[in-house]
Design brief:
With 269 residues, the chain is an alpha+beta fold. Helices cover 34% and strands 14% of the residues. It contains nine helices and six strands. The chain has a six-stranded antiparallel β-sheet with strand order 1-6-2-3-4-5. The chain is elongated. InterPro entries: Peptidoglycan-bd-like, PGBD-like_sf, PGBDSf.
């Protein structure tokens, strides 16, 4: 894979305990808060401040209880592997389908099922291990991560077949760069053409939302199903309202006739 930042998010070199400080403690605190989605009845969410105090220790103990492990309050590399298991599962998933288009949808669904979600604080959004994994080690408010999510899925599928996704598009975190490259290589199907012939878009293709009457694309994701005027999608950095700067990977239903949607064909991936 070209997008390898996820590997750093899965590794903890040293055991951490109350009194520990630093970046690794922050990573533990991030994963404790994210695991609250896996275990909604377990108290895990804590401050992400890099200080392993009594609150973090209690959250670690609660996580150990959720896994029926001895209650130590200590984070070993083995326990960290359990904390980060959702990301490991998603990024190492292999699609069962031999067809590339179906494989893209299956791998995207795996990330969806693992509840890929950002973290936020009072100063910034688009934070955390999922965002850094999608955005080549970067996170923070400037990094809207929908394009990084799309290219991660394409990278997983292409590399599983011994190929590179950069054969069809440049590696980028920008929707504009993706779309403009599609215009140059003939892969981008304009909304006006899709309005006349929706059959040109297929599951596995990448959709790009564009501001009307302007070459300015602001959100992207995958088409998982096409049914008349409706497309089902899997997209990152969105929410239940369809925001282009939301919080997680969501499956959505969109009426493509009510928005300016162009489509990037993945033929040849």
């Amino acid at each position: 894979m070209l997008k390898t930042a996820f590997q750093k998010e899965l590794t903890l070199q040293n055991t951490l305990e109350q009194g520990s400080k630093g970046a690794d403690v922050k990573r533990v605190q991030e994963w404790l808060s994210l695991n609250a989605l896996r275990f909604p009845e377990v108290t895990l969410t804590t401050n992400v401040d890099g200080q392993f105090g009594p609150a973090t220790r209690r959250a670690v103990c609660n996580f150990e209880d959720a896994l029926d492990l001895p209650r130590t309050g200590i984070v070993s590399p083995e326990l960290f592997a359990q904390l980060s298991k959702p990301l490991s599962t998603a990024f190492q998933a292999k699609a069962a389908a031999p067809d590339v288009r179906r494989a893209v949808v299956q791998v995207a669904q795996m990330h969806l099922r693992q509840r890929a979600t950002e973290l936020q604080n009072t100063e910034a959004q688009n934070l955390g291990p999922w965002v850094r994994s999608y955005c080549d080690g970067l996170d923070g408010s400037p990094f809207k991560w929908c394009a990084g999510f799309v290219q991660t899925i394409l990278d997983q599928v292409a590399s599983a077949h011994g190929r590179s996704f950069t054969a069809i598009m440049p590696q980028t975190l920008s929707c504009d760069v993706m779309a403009l490259s599609g215009q140059r290589n003939g892969r981008l199907i304009d909304n006006a053409l899709l309005q006349k012939d929706p059959s040109q878009m297929r599951p596995g293709d990448v959709f790009l939302l564009r501001y009307p009457k302007a070459p300015d694309w602001y959100h992207t994701g995958f088409i998982s199903r096409v049914d008349g005027d409706v497309v089902e999608t899997i997209e990152g950095n969105t929410d239940s309202k369809g925001s282009s700067n939301g919080t997680a990977v969501f499956a959505r239903v969109r009426n493509f006739r009510k928005t300016t949607m162009d489509v990037f064909s993945i033929d040849g991936l």
